[in-house]
């Protein structure tokens, strides 16, 4: 009776209202609406049922059936239902829903059922909220990235869904572009989809490909599984199956991908890749690759046959990549790694990246550093490696590419931040001048090892032993002793001393400076002439050997400002900032025999001599020879304009000249050529978009028949102060800059613990179809004066272009190229075409010429769940699409 009375009250709810219904025991008292808010749910209903309707709500007290008309809505825990009409039967615990046919005969407001992450759209549906079973007619349900369309769907109490005459797709349209059609289908939410028998349908055209059953994983979390290989053909290795293997989701922090290649002519490849992430601590990735390329003469037309791509003999290549990035945390040590190392021609023969294939050198670094915000002490340890390809010429004149590798094992640094001596004794800093005197300390110890045995080859005369020769030896057990004998070990000390800044006459700043540094070496050289020849022998003296250097000086600077008040319609004023700097420095002649850092040797049979460092080619700070008593000068200029932006009197600053600087020095202790070259650089932006940079060097001395004379050019007569010796020019402009700025990311992605090796990123993933077009142009040129002809010679001039064009809302083209204006040739050029096919994507990548000439055509489903649904056609020198 109480329940019936309560439901009777609900009948008078307004059309736009809502109510909460909670069941009570049959013998309970009447529950008023205000009491139901905090009432505890009992009976068959587990939680509050919230419902509302836009048109009307009617309750049949005898049959205990409630009818909701017009945009009806029900919330029941994780379950939500929206439809044109909903009926609730309190006796049978069943909720029925259906849409409404409009005047055009189209079914509107179809039932939309949500159960947690699951969504069902249907013509009609029925759901038992007690047993949690349901039946759906004409349904569409979402399962992860996939959609299931079915004539009838039933849901059991465990949450499994059964579909009859079902279609499975990742296309979100009501009429999908493609789907997998199956007679029967079972869906275990957040786990898998099982179908069978089934076949594939594209654009309503069934394909002849069918299977008795299918298994499609759809876990909420990452899942492990088999990676289907791609099929293709290589000019060198024949037909292949590539990138097939297994993906292993080890845990929420780490995953692994193990794949391999196999070629019909005998080659193979194997790769192991892994990514890992620890939120707020670190992230990284690791890969190890090994390939075997079988010797072949089947090299197609247009493919280079130089040493890099020479397949006349079997080759085995290996490559290791490791990247580890820590999250910066104050007071915590920071371990980081960036490793890229392997065989000499691995990237040219196997790389899927044009940047790697074109790169002349690779570097690796592993380091650990720590500093404390409460302590001036910091320290770090670094291990580094670099490799590059050199051309080595034999005695017969033949050239061979060799791999030169170098290692720093290790590089240890220790430092103490600069402090005032007053702080050492517990004093308090109050801003006095004397507190500007600060002393610090830096130590660096390193051992440099290289298989490129090259020391002293730039001295201009031959040696009788290895110190003056360029020799690259193989790194193996028999050569390790020779390599480590030529290791360069040094310990460097640096004591930075600042003496503070003194204000003079209010507008000038005087800064004195003193510096001292010292290096320790484990060997040095003694030189001697070989009798009867022009050869020079070098004897190595092992032990602990010390060099040091010191210097002092003063610097005086000020700022001058000039303002021109224009008071025009747009321009308010122009300001010029002029910053002169004058400094003096003194350093002793460390080439003096009393220091013992240099040795004067006879360089030829005519008796000509030359100073030669006893630490030639070693790592460390070796002071240069010659007394220095130099007066240095520099001038910096900056010009800005103040402009009105609107009638409200709002102003903005526009830079007319970012920097216009020149500098030089005059060494009063030098016996000749006391004045140095004058260095000039200019940087500005034209029209606030076109960046221009100019830098050059002017020589103030005369040249006669290509020989520099100790006579100023000004003495020739006329107004010739100096001669331009070299000039560098660079400019660049980005058109449609605002369109690109609009697409800038608004913020960083949230931290995650989910590594992702599952999906291969394609060129289409980098295209923004809502940017109409972009274009960036840059021009770089370099000139050097030929002192014999007295003409500026163009060493190199290159123009680069890159950008994109969105032809339609579905078609886009991107391109990049550069042109050598001096040699009149195009360098690396790439053209990409992308077509958005809604649930699919097409990308064409083309390098029309050069060593890396290739093309690649890809058509694939966007969803990572069905990423193996793809068509790929490619051709390149190595058979690998970049």
Automatic annotation (TrEMBL):
Tell me where in this chain the LPS-assembly protein LptD central domain is found: 193-701
Which Gene Ontology cellular-component terms appear in the entry? cell outer membrane; transporter complex
By what name is this protein known?
A: LPS-assembly protein LptD central domain-containing protein
Q: Which InterPro entries match?
A: LptD (IPR050218), LptD_2 (IPR045659)
Q: From which source organism is this entry?
A: Rufibacter tibetensis
Pfam families linked? LptD_2
């Amino acid at each position: 009776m109480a329940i019936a009375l309560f439901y009777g009250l609900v009948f008078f709810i307004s059309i736009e209202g809502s109510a909460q219904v909670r069941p009570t025991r049959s013998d309970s008292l009447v529950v008023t609406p205000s009491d139901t808010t905090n009432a505890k749910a009992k009976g068959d209903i587990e939680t509050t049922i919230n419902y509302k309707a836009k048109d009307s709500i009617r309750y049949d007290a005898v049959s205990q059936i409630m009818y909701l008309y017009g945009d009806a809505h029900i919330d029941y825990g994780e379950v939500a239902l929206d439809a044109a009409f909903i009926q609730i039967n309190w006796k049978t615990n069943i909720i029925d829903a259906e849409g409404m046919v409009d005047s055009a005969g189209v079914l509107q407001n179809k039932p939309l059922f949500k159960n947690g992450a699951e969504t069902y759209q249907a013509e009609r549906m029925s759901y038992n909220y007690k047993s949690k079973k349901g039946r759906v007619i004409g349904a569409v349900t979402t399962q992860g990235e996939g959609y299931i369309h079915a004539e009838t769907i039933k849901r059991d109490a465990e949450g499994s869904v059964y579909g009859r005459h079902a279609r499975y797709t990742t296309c979100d349209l009501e009429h999908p572009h493609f789907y997998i059609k199956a007679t029967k289908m079972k869906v275990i939410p957040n786990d898998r989809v099982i179908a069978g028998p089934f076949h594939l349908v594209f654009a309503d055209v069934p394909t002849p490909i069918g299977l008795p059953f299918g298994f499609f994983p759809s876990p909420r979390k990452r899942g492990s599984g088999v990676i289907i290989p791609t099929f293709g053909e290589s000019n060198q290795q024949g037909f292949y199956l590539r990138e097939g293997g297994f993906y292993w989701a080890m845990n929420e922090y780490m995953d692994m991908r193990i794949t391999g290649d196999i070629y019909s002519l005998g080659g193979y490849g194997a790769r192991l890749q892994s990514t890992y992430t620890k939120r707020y601590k670190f992230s990284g990735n690791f890969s190890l690759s090994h390939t075997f390329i079988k010797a072949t003469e089947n090299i197609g037309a247009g493919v280079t046959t130089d040493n890099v791509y020479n397949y006349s003999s079997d080759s085995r290549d290996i490559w290791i990549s490791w990247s580890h990035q820590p999250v910066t945390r104050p007071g915590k040590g920071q371990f980081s790694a960036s490793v890229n190392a392997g065989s000499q021609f691995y990237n040219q023969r196997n790389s899927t990246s044009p940047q790697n294939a074109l790169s002349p050198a690779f570097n690796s670094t592993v380091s650990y550093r720590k500093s404390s915000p409460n302590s001036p002490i910091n320290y770090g340890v670094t291990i580094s490696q670099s490799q590059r390809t050199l051309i080595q010429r034999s005695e017969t004149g033949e050239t061979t590419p060799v791999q030169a590798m170098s290692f720093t094992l290790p590089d240890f640094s220790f430092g103490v931040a600069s402090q005032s001596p007053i702080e050492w004794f517990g004093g308090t800093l109050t801003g006095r001048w004397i507190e500007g005197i600060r002393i610090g300390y830096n130590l660096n110890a390193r051992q440099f090892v290289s298989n490129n045995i090259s020391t002293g080859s730039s001295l201009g005369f031959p040696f009788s032993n290895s110190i003056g020769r360029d020799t690259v030896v193989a790194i193996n057990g028999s050569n390790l002793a020779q390599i480590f004998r030529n290791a360069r070990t040094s310990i460097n000390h640096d004591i930075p001393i600042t003496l503070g800044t003194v204000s003079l006459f209010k507008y000038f700043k005087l800064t004195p400076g003193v510096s001292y540094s010292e290096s320790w070496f484990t060997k040095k050289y003694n030189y001697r002439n070989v009798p009867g020849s022009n050869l020079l022998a070098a004897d190595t003296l092992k032990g602990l050997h010390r060099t040091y250097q010191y210097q002092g000086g003063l610097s005086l600077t000020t700022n001058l400002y000039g303002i021109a008040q224009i008071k025009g319609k747009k321009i308010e004023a122009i300001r010029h900032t002029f910053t002169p700097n004058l400094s003096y420095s003194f350093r002793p002649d460390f080439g003096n025999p009393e220091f013992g850092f240099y040795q004067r040797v006879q360089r030829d049979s005519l008796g000509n001599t030359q100073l030669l460092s006893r630490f030639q080619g070693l790592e460390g700070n070796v002071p240069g020879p010659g007394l220095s008593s130099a007066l240095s000068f520099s001038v910096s200029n900056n010009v800005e304009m103040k402009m009105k932006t609107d009638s409200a009197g709002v102003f903005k600053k526009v830079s007319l000249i970012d920097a216009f600087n020149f500098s030089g020095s005059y060494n009063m202790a030098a016996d000749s050529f006391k004045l140095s070259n004058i260095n000039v650089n200019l940087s500005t932006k034209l029209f606030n978009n076109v960046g221009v940079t100019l830098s050059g060097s002017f020589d103030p001395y005369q040249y006669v028949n290509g020989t520099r004379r100790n006579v100023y050019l000004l003495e020739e007569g006329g107004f010739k102060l100096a001669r331009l010796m070299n000039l560098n020019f660079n400019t660049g402009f980005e058109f449609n800059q605002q369109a690109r700025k609009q697409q800038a990311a608004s913020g960083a992605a949230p931290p995650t613990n989910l590594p992702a090796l599952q999906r291969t990123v394609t060129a289409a993933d980098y295209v923004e179809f809502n940017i109409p077009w972009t274009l960036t142009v840059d021009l770089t040129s370099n000139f050097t004066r030929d002192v014999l002809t007295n003409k500026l010679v163009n060493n190199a001039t290159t123009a680069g272009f890159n950008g994109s064009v969105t032809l339609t809302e579905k078609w886009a083209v991107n391109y990049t190229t550069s042109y050598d204006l001096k040699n009149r040739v195009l360098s690396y050029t790439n053209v990409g075409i992308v077509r958005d096919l809604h649930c699919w994507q097409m990308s064409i990548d083309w390098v029309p010429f050069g060593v890396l000439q290739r093309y690649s055509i890809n058509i694939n489903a966007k969803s990572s769940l069905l990423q193996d649904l793809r068509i790929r056609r490619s051709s390149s020198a190595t058979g690998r699409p970049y």
